[in-house]
Amino acid sequence: MPFFLFAFLFLLYPSSTIVVRTFLDSKTGEFTFRNVLNLIQDPYVLGAYWLSIKISVVTALGGGIFGFLLAYSSIRGGLPRIMRTSLMTFSGVASNFAGIPLAFAFIALLSPTGMLTNWLKFTGINIYDYGFTLYKFWGLSVVYMYFQFPLMVLIIAPAIDGLRREWIEASENLGASTLQYWRYVAFPILLPSIMGSMILLFGNSFGAFATAVALTGGSSMNLATIVIGAQLRGDVLGDPGLGYAVAFGMVIVMTVVMTVYTILQRRAERWLK
Question: With helix as H, strand as E and coil as C, how does 130-166 read?
Answer without folding.
Answer: HCCCCCCHHHHHHHHHHHHHHHHHHHHHHHHHCCCHH
